[in-house]
Amino acid sequence: MVCDTMSNIATRLATINVFSELSPEALESIAHLFTSNRFERGATLISQQDTSSNVYFLLEGKVRATLYSPAGKEVSYQELKPGDMFGEMAALDNLPRSTHVISLVKGELLTLTSDDFNRLIMTHPVFARAVL
């Protein structure tokens, strides 16, 4: 876990695509909702079919979302870079995770609970549009 001041988190939120249109005041007001976490290369950040529902915002590093075919073959789905969000579908539909997300290099992300994510969608229309 990385210790960050709320002001530092607010500044870093501005680098995330879905938050880039929020005012500095709005970012300051939501910064306390996030936790900052570092991860190592090869870490599994999300497991397919897991029932967790946190949403993640990549600050540093690169991750890959992958699917597994019925035959067990890994199929690369998408590579994500700093500024990208992932994990939002489980927060929106309350279904198990649809992909694995594995880190390609060490990095850092911000984590938001699904309840807080959905609350932000309801209270910040600019954020809701960006998510859509």
Alpha-carbon distance between the termini?
A: 30 Å
Label the structural class.
Answer: alpha+beta
Order of helices and strands: HHEEEEEEHEEHH
Strand order of the largest sheet: 1-8-3-6
Radius of gyration: 15 Å
User: How many helical elements?
Assistant: 5
Count of DSSP strands: 8
- What share of the residues lie within helices? 25-40%
The average pLDDT score comes to 93
**Major sheet characteristics:** 4 strands, antiparallel
Quote the beta fraction: 25-35%
- Globally, the shape reads globular
Parts with pLDDT < 50 across at least 5 consecutive residues: none
What this model shows, in words?
- The protein is α+β, with helices and mostly antiparallel strands.
- The protein has helices at residues 6-13, 24-30, 88-93, 114-123, 125-131; strands spanning 35-39, 44-46, 55-60, 63-68, 74-80, 85-86, 100-103, 107-112.
- The protein has a 4-stranded antiparallel β-sheet. Strands 2-7-4-5 form a 4-stranded antiparallel β-sheet, with no helix packed on it.
- A hairpin with a 5-residue loop joins strand 4 (63-68) and strand 5.
- It is globular.
- The termini are far apart.
- 29% of the residues are buried.
- The model has no long low-confidence stretch (mean pLDDT 93).
